[in-house]
Amino acid sequence: MSPPAPDDCLARNTWICGEYLSTRRHILLDAVLEHLQLTAVPVALALALAVPLAVVARRWSWAAGPVLAVTTILYTIPSLAMFSLLLPVYGLSASLVVAGLVLYSLTLLVRNILAGLRAVPEETRQAARGMGYGPVRLLLTVELPLALPAAMAGLRIATVSAVSLVTIGAIVGFGGLGNLIYAGMNTYFKAQVLTASVLCVVIAVAADLLLLGVQRLLTPWTRAAGS
Amino acid sequence: MNTLTEAWRWLTDPAHWSGDGGITQRLTEHLVLTVVCLAVSCLIALPVALVLGHLGKGGALAVNLANIGRAVPTFAVLVLLLLTPVGRWSEGPTVVALVLFAVPPLLTNAYVGMRGVDRDTVRAAKGMGMTGRQVLTGVELPLALPMVMTGVRIAATQLVATATIAALAGGGGLGRIITAGFNLASTPQVVAGAVLVAALALAVEGAFVLAERLSPQRARGIT
Questions:
Q1: In CATH, what number is assigned to the domain containing residue B161?
Q2: What is the domain extent for residue B103?
Q3: Structure confidence at residue B223 (pLDDT)
Q4: Are the C-beta atoms of residues B50 and B110 closer than 8 Å to each other?
Q5: DSSP code of A2?
Q6: A56 in any annotated domain
Q7: Is the residue at A145 inside a domain?
Q8: Residues of chain B found within 8 Å of residue A184, distances taken between Cβ atoms
Q9: Helices and strands (H and E) in chain B: how many
Q10: Is pLDDT of B35 > 70?
Q11: Where in the sequence is the domain holding A29, given as residue range(s)?
Q12: What is the average pLDDT value for chain A, to the nearest integer?
């Protein structure tokens, strides 16, 4: 095998390098898949936790204060510290990154879903009750659908934040594209750092647009009212 | 529980507080970085936001900037800066990244606050013969102050968090205790560092909440 040409862009360590893209295609693909997984799993778990929490906080007003206080405190803790605090519990594992991101997403989701539920007009609630709706049917068919736009806004912010925060998981070796950025920093590999960074932003924007599309499909009435 | 006891022992050991790379030095670095960068970011963002808000121009930019800031990973920006000529000055990447991430919340909140001022009030002020500058400083700014301060609070929290991540890219601050703990495979040190960072972040947030409580009612938006 002949040695690589001395003047290719990998040897020159340039920021943009086609050679890098073609030779490390599989590494990049694996990192992207890990990144997507580390984003989607925590956001989905947080959503599953946030809906009941917000409903409880809406129904029993005394619960709203503590729920909001705890989630606000969790959100204030910087991501690197959050992952580090979970280290004794989860060790160096992907679960650590997932757990940390669940806690962040939870804050954004609970706040937004609660705001959405609170914004449902009292007249609407009363009208539904007058039509004989029980509390469960009222919640599922009236309150939650009306809270959807606010909840989706929270979901979009939580997802975009999660995509960006996954990179910090590189400290424990589970950072998706963050691993490539971390390795690229230590080896001064410009093409790898720039490519992985750009891919992070592309994933964030794509996820945001995807959720915007889902929101439009789920809430056709807001479009009719808005136009 | 065992790790917590060991972390507590690590924290209370006086040898870890003093000297080069000790907690005192790292805490000072962290605070200086946060305060200096907050001041620089305010000097950059607030005049722009106040003038844009007063003129009612550039709203799309001001509002979308915060969303863009959220989508760009802090860590990626730090490493990218480290590999550029800025990286030759040891704290260069940290300072530039801190300012970059503190500007969007400042700009967005100040702009939204300025645009949220009741238009009738502004018209009344103009009708009384106030000049544009007088309306800006005497009417709009005081009324927008609660939103401006919300932006400053969010920016400060963001700065504390970003300064922590800077340790991953070789910057100073409390994050260094965490990264050093990871390199030594010392879970107690990692946890101790994380507790310090979390305490600092909560203290900064708490200080702003307290300042808001103690401020005159007018500045809280209660009229």
A1: 1.10.3720.10
A2: 2-220
A3: 45
A4: yes
A5: P
A6: yes
A7: yes
A8: 79
A9: 10, 0
A10: yes
A11: 10-220
A12: 89
